[in-house]
Amino acid sequence: MNRPLFSHRLTAMLTAFFALAFTAGLASAQSTAQLEGELSSISGQMSSAESNESTADQVIGRLDGAEASFAKLTSSGKVDKGAMIPIFHQLEGMLDRMQTAWSKKKDDCINTIDNGGQCDYDKPEQFALRAAYPLAWLRFTAATTLFDDSAEQSKKLLNESIDGFTASMLAMPDPNLIRENTLGRAYCERELGKFDHKEYDNAIADFKKIMDDGTTTQQYAAAKQGLSTTYAKMGDAAKAAELMQGVSTGGKGGSGQFMLQLQTLFQAERATSDSAKKAEYHKQIIDLMKPKENDKEGWAIDVAAASKFPSNAVEEFGNSNDPFEKWLLAAVLLSRKDEAGAAKYYSEACDSGKYPKACRFAADIYQREKRFDLVQVMLEKIARQGGGDAAQANFLEYSLDHDRWEKSGQKDKALEDKWVKDAEEYLQKSPGGEHAAELQVALADRKQRQGDLLGAADLYSKVKGDAEFTFTAKFKAAECYYKILVGAAASKDDKTAPKIDTDQLRKLALADLNESIKMGPQAESAANNAAAKKAVREIRGEATYMLASILEEDQEHVDYAQVAPLLVGYESNYPMMSAKFQDVIEWRITALDHLGRYDEVNRDVAGLVERSHGDVAKGDFIKGLGIDFWKTAQAAKENNDDKAYKANAKLTVTAYRFFSDMADQGKIPVKNLTGTLSIYAQALQATGQADEAEKVFQEVVKADPASPDANAGLARRAEEKGDWKEANERWTAVENTAAESDPLWYEAKYHLAVIYEKQGNVQGACSKLAQTRAEHPTLGSDDMKVRWDKLQRSLCLDHHQ
Fold it and tell me: Is-above-0.85 flag for pTM?
């Protein structure tokens, strides 16, 4: 039986036992979803695999691989037990099913032979053993990870694993396979030792039995480590440390083995009261750690071990004269968010000259803490050491001078000149350096404050690198162009104003605003603290507003398809831009209305009305929206666009319900809303809400009996009901109160003629039509003239014929 996955199982076992926040050296584990998918795929072959050798060979191989993936998932840091326990039970059941099915076939074959028949049980036995081995490891892994907090379940699984490893040993003549199963059994015995200390003796015996076969076997190193950890669990740290000496930390599982060695040495150091032995263990620890300081994985393990295993890291490393220990301790304290402590030991490591970066790290921390005196000390150290950190020293000088200048209220000219000089020197020495973008933005911002908007925009356009500052620069360049455009619009009639290519500036502004909006999410994600994220979010809001305002400049050519999606969700995304919400809402609603997205407009308007409930100050804005909707509705009606007419009438209703509610609550007198409420009622009529419209018209007439719009509305309603007397009175009121320039004046005379005819007074109708035409030949509009001709011909000319 070939066991190519042995090295994986050793790696997974070590890492599970010494799991920390990292998984150095491990292959990338499958996701839980992938493993679930693999088991689901295998499940369809299970029935066939219980009897067909070819299928069994394939299925058991895939289940073996699934167990390896399970081991990786449960040993890669924090385990999602809720997700992994059901997977364990499913995989355990499938392996047990294969092992049981083929064990039975082997037993049946042996019975056949015992009874004088012929049968080859080699294949069934191989399949049973191939299923039993990963099943035993699966149970061991589950016992030590998923059920480590359940003593009874853990013991049950460990004992089942021991039974599986033992049964496999009895059936295997191959010494290598016997050692593998002995190793698995020893691990289980070691874990059972915490429940029954006699099991430690069993584990020691099994580990030693493997080691007795010589140092060249595949299992020797694992057995030696297992023996060391067993002694460690028994409290014999010195014995454990002795066994770990000389163990290789390279290759697969090297990270886990390295961490194990460090843990064992730290335990031995802590366990002894002999100062000489403590010093010797400490030296061994440092000797192990030092070669790893320039290796990313190794250094991560150094820092993790130095943070996790000593009782007191400062006492362990802080009193040493070795610069490495200062450097290590600083990293440990920084990982614990103790920046002040880290800075102290970075400073001491810096003094050695061996760790020039330590000077910069300490200075960075002191700068964040506003300890400018200590920043200056570190700058002097960096200057004395020279080398590659000279540009960094310039940046720290800049930061120091810039902070002081800001504290002066940006009034100290000498400090301003100093930080400008620092920034320029940095950019000269390191034009593509870590802080280049930040300094370029600062210099450009200075030009912008000085009023050199084009010069500032030019500097902003050169910023590259850092995502947050590149984003800011794009926006600030656009802001400069925008301000120039606004200024140009304000002085367009000033013949002395300098000539500006506004078309070009508009293109540049639009390009930079579009780019900054595109870059915004990434810049916000990259921002390293809440304040920075908030600042980026505010810039995104300002950029979006600026872009929309530029697009809205030319009302005859607005790109509504671009404006609408740009402004959807603006209020919730950018609450800090509340001062601009009124413009945004109007632009968005107008865009959506032009695009025919009426349901979205209606939701927007309804939300605005709801948020503005009871706020009289919002009335003018909402009234303007309603007027625009109603005008759009009237235009659509004239163009015979019934869909747009009714949609915009509905929007008018939604907007003007605000005023109806205000009137009902007594917050605005009806007499002050007669025109608005009349439009509201007309919109209600247009949307089929005739009864509600009639009530509103009556309220208006009650407040203002001479209202032409309200009387006209009630007159139309009376005509619909066939109440010609009421209709006559209402249209007469319109005729008497409407101005001759008001289309309703002609409408009233037209309808009075219709009513006269309905009442049987054809002569009166014809007289009305003839007299009005004689006195006002234009009849107010071409449309009315067409209607008038048709009625007059029908009632008067054709009738007489």
Answer: no
